[in-house]
């Protein structure tokens, strides 16, 4: 059996950043396991720019951003295996993996970092009526076909869902010569970043129809068209609002789901709101010695935030291995999300393990204008900042300071919520 201080499942942006940070913080032996044929994860198919503004203070494409971390990983001498699928992780942190050249591998780790990323919500999860013709793709699959394999999925395109990948593919398909007729969004607001709506739809004259969805797919062998209808406040189609669009391709951009099958089998406690693990301030899950970061934890909108989060997870995994951190969970302080705040990461903090400053990330559940973000330590308010607009598509950050938390005697709860202006 192979032995490593830290095994990292996933060689995308989260896994790469976590591995480098763990090495810099004293972990002697690290192994990254990646199921694809190269490191970098989803970044390899994201050939548009806009990456690295926070991390490198310059605008990079996805492959350029990944290349910088891959170079650092290789210079640090960190081991990795490609084309290797992790099949199981036991409670004793034995990782069972498989590849073509070595067969079944069993690797014992002193700590495991989960960095498997996320997957797209499929057509089967959306229950769209109609046949199952060719021409229905997830937006990410279409992105890979266009950017990495050189295929154009279709010429006349309708996109369902206004997530960032769908918005970016509306622009990409247009630049490749396809006609994107409309982007339909079930919700009354877009799930993507404001800058992507402007740069990918508005700049190309592509209409965005909010509170609309696909109610029927036409065609048996190949998509021939789709019918889109307006929905009411209960997200039910409104009779008489149907519009038919002639198209040969339907792209689905209807949300991302953290890839947590391995986590669930391991017994990691999952947050039902994020579909990712519940973690503490060290990004440690409910299973001691198992950490999580990146999109497997909660879906991010910027890869720069993934890298920051993963660096913290890698650092704390290294400290765990070196036994420099106390892991008595009895002093954990729960963090509550209330009044418009949908969830927070982390779910708890422990002052014994907490750094002097900790970045808490959260998303809201709806669009809010001219409100305040507030943080309470029990009944004491320590943070109150006005926001002109808050939207579910944009992740928010608050920096918690250890000295402020320690100043409240017998602190029992931290609350993050929205208040009216």
Please tag this protein with its features.
FAD/NAD(P)-binding domain, 8 helices, 421 residues, five-stranded parallel sheet, alpha/beta, 3 domains
Structure in words:
- By secondary structure, the protein is an alpha/beta fold.
- It has three domains: about 1-120 and about 255-325, FAD/NAD(P)-binding domain; about 120-255, FAD/NAD(P)-binding domain; about 330-420, no CATH class.
- It is built from eight helices and 29 strands.
- Strand 1 (about 1-10), helix 1 and strand 2 (about 30-35) form a beta-alpha-beta unit.
- Helix 1 (about 15-25) packs parallel to helix 2 (about 60-75) and helix 3 (about 140-145) packs parallel to helix 4 (about 165-175).
- The model has no long low-confidence stretch (mean pLDDT about 90).
Q: What is the average of the pLDDT values? A: 92
Strand residue content: 35-45%
Radius of gyration: 22 Å
Low-confidence stretches: none
Total domain modules: 3
Per CATH, the class of the largest domain reads Alpha Beta
Number of helices: 8
Q: What is the CA–CA distance across the termini?
A: 60 Å
Tell me the name of the CATH homologous superfamily of the largest domain.
Answer: FAD/NAD(P)-binding domain
The CATH level-2 architecture of the largest domain is identified as 3-Layer(bba) Sandwich
The biggest beta sheet, please?
Answer: 7 strands, mixed
State the total count of DSSP E strands.
29
Determine the structural class based on helices, strands and strand pairing. Answer: alpha/beta
Instruction: Give the overall shape, derived from the CA principal axes.
Output: globular
CATH topology of the largest domain: FAD/NAD(P)-binding domain
Percentage of residues in helical conformation = 10-25%
């Amino acid at each position: 059996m192979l032995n490593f201080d830290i095994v990292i499942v996933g060689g995308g942006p989260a896994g790469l950043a976590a591995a480098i940070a763990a090495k810099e913080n004293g972990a002697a032996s690290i192994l990254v396991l990646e199921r694809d044929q190269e490191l970098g994860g989803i970044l390899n198919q994201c050939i548009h720019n806009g990456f690295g503004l926070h991390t490198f203070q310059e605008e990079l494409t996805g492959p350029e951003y990944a290349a910088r971390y891959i170079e650092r990983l290789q210079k640090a001498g960190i081991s990795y295996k490609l084309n290797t699928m992790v099949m199981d992780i036991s409670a004793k942190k034995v990782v069972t993996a498989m590849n073509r050249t070595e067969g079944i591998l069993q690797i014992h780790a002193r700590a495991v970092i989960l960095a498997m990323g996320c997957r797209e919500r499929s057509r089967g999860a959306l229950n769209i009526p109609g046949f199952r013709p060719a021409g229905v793709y997830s937006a990410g699959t279409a992105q890979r076909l266009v950017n990495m394999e050189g295929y154009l999925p279709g010429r006349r395109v309708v996109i369902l869902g206004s997530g960032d990948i769908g918005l970016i593919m509306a622009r990409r398909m247009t630049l490749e010569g396809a006609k994107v007729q409309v982007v339909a969004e079930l919700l009354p607001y877009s799930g993507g970043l404001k800058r992507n709506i402007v740069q990918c739809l508005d700049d190309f004259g592509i209409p965005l129809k909010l509170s609309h969805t696909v109610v029927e797919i036409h065609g048996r062998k190949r998509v021939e068209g789709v019918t889109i209808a307006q929905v009411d406040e209960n997200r039910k189609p409104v009779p008489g609002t149907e519009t038919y669009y002639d198209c040969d391709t339907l792209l689905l951009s209807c949300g991302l789901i953290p890839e947590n099958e391995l986590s669930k089998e391991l017994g990691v406690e999952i947050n039902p709101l994020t579909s990712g693990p519940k973690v503490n301030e060290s990004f440690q899950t409910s299973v001691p010695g198992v950490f999580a970061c990146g999109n497997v934890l909660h879906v991010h909108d910027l890869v720069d935030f993934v890298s920051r989060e993963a660096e913290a997870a890698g650092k704390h995994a290294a400290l765990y291995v070196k036994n420099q951190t106390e892991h008595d969970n009895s002093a954990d302080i729960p963090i509550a999300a209330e009044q418009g705040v949908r969830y927070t990461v982390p779910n708890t903090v422990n002052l014994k393990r907490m750094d002097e400053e900790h970045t808490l990330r959260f998303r809201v559940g709806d669009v809010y204008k001219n409100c305040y973000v507030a943080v309470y330590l029990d009944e004491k308010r320590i943070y109150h900042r006005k926001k002109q607009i808050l939207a579910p598509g944009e992740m928010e950050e608050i920096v918690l300071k250890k000295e402020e938390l320690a100043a409240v005697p017998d602190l029992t709860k931290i609350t993050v919520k929205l208040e009216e202006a």
